[in-house]
UniProtKB/TrEMBL annotation:
Biological process according to GO: methionine biosynthetic process; tetrahydrofolate interconversion
Xref: Pfam families: MTHFR
Name listed for the protein in its UniProt record: Methylenetetrahydrofolate reductase
Cofactor (UniProt): FAD
Length: 291
């Protein structure tokens, strides 16, 4: 028989989860048909981010973001530091976002070994964005609940400190251990980085769609994609596969924290939008009934 306090905590966690599910973020990949799929399946109150990749280049990201904004979506393009040549190109990108009414961007380092120009990392790009000026109301940066495969923990912590003054929110990389994610979020706060965190997690996805997505982003880039997601792929291939429901249930106790910095969910859709949206609605209904 649960205590009254534990019942209240569960209800508080479900209320917060319901709020997160009403207004989540969906990440989409700029491929053929992405725009049409978003328009058909995604409600306008779901925020979107558009990835940037070496194979497609920065401008494919910007152009899809412009079109989605034209449909009335709130959208944040990824600004990948290593894909942007110089200040001139950065200025052109920011001008295009300004003209499209886009007021949010997510700044990442990028997944190529050699930068296209002067920007080595996200911090350098953020610094120049601040110097030349922009009209963005929101700027996101990446957080790493688990160790980065190519960057030491000390460097990711230092990078967080360096990027935080230029940012308004953090999106965490995928982590399948909810306790690790919750503990990391508390440690970020205790270290003085007081930015809201949107927990990154995969939505609904199937193996066949993953193969099509990885093929669509090019051979070399596909290898990088699969390498980055290798822990998730192991989960997907194991008996029972990956379940977003189980990950949500594991994260939920942390949502009861009365002073939380976890403020939302960021769903890596892998363009599986119809199924992800159906899953979101089901989970929202369940959370509302339990709150």
């Amino acid at each position: 028989m649960p205590t009254q306090q534990s019942t209240e905590e569960r209800q508080r966690a479900n209320r917060r989860l319901a709020g997160f599910l009403r207004h989540p973020g969906y990440e989409v990949i700029p491929l053929q048909g992405t725009e049409e799929s978003v328009v058909e399946h995604v409600p306008k109150d779901v925020a979107l981010t558009v990835t940037a990749s070496p194979g497609k280049g920065t401008w494919a990201t910007v152009e899809l973001a412009e079109r989605l904004a034209g449909h009335g979506f709130g959208v944040a393009p990824h600004l990948s530091a290593r894909l942007i040549r110089d200040r001139l190109e950065l200025g052109e990108i920011l001008q295009r976002l300004r003209e499209a009414g886009i007021r949010n961007a997510f700044v990442v380092a990028g997944d190529i070994d050699e930068p296209a120009g002067e920007f080595e990392d996200a911090t350098g790009l953020l610094e120049v964005m601040s110097e030349i000026g922009h009209d963005l109301d929101e700027v996101g940066i990446t957080g790493y609940p688990e160790s980065h495969p190519k960057i030491s923990d000390e460097m990711t912590i230092q990078a967080m400190y360096e990027k935080a003054p230029y940012a308004t929110y953090i999106i965490s990389q995928i982590c399948f251990d909810p306790e690790v994610t919750s503990d990391w979020a508390r440690r970020v706060w205790s270290r003085g980085v007081k930015l809201p965190i949107r927990v990154g997690m995969p939505g609904y996805v199937n193996r066949q769609k993953l193969v099509r997505i990885s093929a669509g982003i090019g051979l070399g880039e596909s290898a990088r994609f699969l390498h980055r997601q290798r822990n998730w792929l192991v989960k997907l291939l194991l008996p029972g596969g990956y379940s977003p429901d189980r990950l949500i249930e594991g994260l939920k106790p942390g949502f009861a924290d009365p002073n939380p910095n976890i403020q939302g969910l960021h769903i890596y859709t892998f363009n599986e939008l119809e199924q992800t949206e159906a899953w979101r609605r089901k989970m929202l209904q369940r959370a509302e009934l339990s709150s």
